[in-house]
Design a protein that fits this description.
Largest sheet: 5 strands, mixed
Distance between the termini: 28 Å
Helix content: 25-40%
Structural class: alpha+beta
Number of helices: 19
Length: 533
């Protein structure tokens, strides 16, 4: 046990000393590149899953003793994205402090809320333009890094932009598995455990998600027949390439300007669609655990070439590139309910497909077109689907009040906070998940349009049919979500440094600035170097 403590302290000391003599900068060239900032972590000693078992008995014993401490004192929660976290955290802090006299929760936010503009087109479509700046991310990451180097910092960090893997490897985040194992009042079976474990790393659970979301696919019933849809449904999963190949002949013969793919609520479909497909296939090219990259065996070049061919053939709305991969986005193109074969939507929009004609009064801004029919989740060739989060939190290893920090994390995933209107994403708490899904389907609240700060309020409830119909809709809705959960195993973290390297090189290829081979070779070199640091 003594040797374990010494080894762990050596890792921390090495993290502090080495990072002090190096500096990084964040380069913005169309896409966010985190690699240069993360040089700060390059000399950290990496954890080796073969050397230790996580959590160790010593870690569990330490967590057990911490859990037994009195609940008192003050902690600070730090987050970059004010819009994503502030209201939820401040609501939780107020309730928590009232329930636990003698405690104080401070909330620090770094960024400003995104600017929104609303434009209504002549044909009645609403364009919602959300403008948020990436400026300041580098400053925030640098500030947090400096804090951790000195063994200081906030007690809890929101892991929206911070380099999750590097922080986990640097022993500056607490392995929450030790607390989960030691705390008899925390039962993993009460939660969507796959959402937790999909974000684990090298055996450790270094952050706890408070919500999750995923993308699903609908098809246009006028353009994609049920026979074609059945072929995709028969295995319960399908890849992007299977989906586009299935309708390619019909698309090429179609003269009305339709696209194969549309993504709802985005201005730049190429960036988002590429990132979505990449998330499902990235493991073919990068093995973070083994610290190896594999970009030059031809598979990545084939991946890039196929995607560019689809863009050149107008499979989807292309983004224009200029200079070094910078994206010029046309904000005057409203989202329409026609002119596509498949559409990608976010899980929060799923309820529209189950309500359908049951609504006696219609939503003001329906996300499902008249011909939209639900297909399912897009997966990789192993049947795995990707998911992400807006709210996930980690405890600083150097926190002086881990007891209070852990109790607050538990409260954030409690049934009370998981049913908050400020959560936004799907709850990770199973009971809250059932309650929220029932609220959406059986009562169907009508939310007001978001104001400039992104706030929604319930202005009333849509009228549904009979109680029997409501119950059936709720069962169907839950069954779909439960089936979807089984496929959700690829957790996309806010730490996207390698993904952004891939996007940057890829879009230089798409813009004609590089060949597929040169992009692959550049990535093999840069990613391999990054993984070995």
């Amino acid at each position: 046990m003594r040797r374990r403590k010494v080894r762990k302290e050596n890792k921390r000391q090495n993290f502090r000393e080495k990072a002090l003599v190096m500096e990084g900068t964040l380069i913005m060239k169309g896409f966010l590149i985190l690699a240069s900032v993360l040089i700060l972590f390059s000399s950290c000693q990496h954890k080796n899953a073969e050397d230790e078992t996580y959590p160790s008995k010593a870690q569990v014993d330490e967590a057990f003793s911490i859990i037994g401490e009195n609940l008192t004192g003050e902690i600070t929660v730090s987050c970059f994205d004010e819009e994503a976290h502030s209201k939820f955290l401040r609501e939780a802090a107020a309730i928590f402090e009232q329930n636990n006299p003698g405690t104080k929760i401070n909330i620090e936010t770094f960024s400003s809320p995104a600017e929104r503009t609303y434009t209504e087109t002549e044909d009645g479509n609403l364009i919602i333009r959300k403008i948020s700046s990436d400026e300041g991310k580098a400053d925030y990451i640098s500030r947090v890094t400096t804090e951790l180097m000195g063994g200081k910092g906030a007690d809890i960090y929101a892991m929206d932009v911070l380099p999750y893997y590097k922080f986990a490897e640097g022993s500056v985040l607490t392995d929450l598995n030790a607390f989960i194992e030691a705390d008899s009042n925390f039962n993993l079976s009460d939660y969507k455990s796959n959402i937790f474990t999909g974000l684990s790393y090298l055996g450790g659970q270094y952050m706890l998600p408070a919500d999750f979301y995923f993308r699903l696919i609908a098809f246009n019933g006028e353009k994609v027949g049920e026979r074609e849809a059945a072929k995709l449904r028969e295995n319960g999963a399908f890849t992007y390439w299977e989906m586009t190949d299935l309708v390619k002949e019909a698309f090429l013969a179609d003269k009305d300007g339709s696209k194969i793919m549309e993504i709802s609520f985005t201005d730049d479909i190429t960036e988002l669609l590429f990132g979505y497909v990449l998330a499902l296939e990235e493991d073919k090219f990068v093995d973070r655990t083994a610290k190896t990259a594999n970009f030059t065996d031809g598979k990545f070049e084939d991946f890039l070439t196929k995607f560019k061919t689809q863009a050149d053939n107008n499979y989807f709305k292309p983004a224009l590139t200029e200079g070094e991969g910078n994206i010029i986005t046309n904000f005057d193109n409203p989202v329409k309910n026609t002119g596509y074969y498949f559409r990608s939507l976010v899980s929060v929009q799923l309820k529209d497909f189950f309500l359908g004609e049951a609504l006696e009064t219609k939503p003001n801004f329906p996300v499902a077109g008249e011909n939209d029919k639900l297909l399912g989740l897009m997966t990789n060739d192993l049947g795995q689907a990707a998911y992400s989060y807006r709210k996930a939190y980690a405890i600083n290893t150097y926190s002086n009040n881990k007891k209070l920090a852990w109790e607050l994390l538990k409260f954030l995933v409690s049934e009370e906070m998981q049913t908050s209107i400020n959560l936004v994403g799907l709850p990770v708490n199973s009971k809250a998940f059932e309650k929220v899904s029932k609220l959406f389907i059986t009562e169907n609240p009508n939310y007001s349009q978001a104001d400039e700060e992104g706030n929604f309020t319930i202005t009333g409830y849509y009228n549904l049919g009979s109680q029997e119909l409501r119950q059936k809709l709720h069962r169907d809705y839950l069954n779909f979500l439960r089936d979807a959960e089984d496929k959700l195993s690829i957790g996309i973290t806010g730490d996207t440094e390698i993904t952004e390297m891939i996007k940057t090189e890829s879009f230089e290829f798409f813009g004609g600035l590089k060949t597929a081979r040169s992009a692959a070779e550049a990535l093999q070199s840069s990613v391999s170097m990054y993984l070995s640091e």
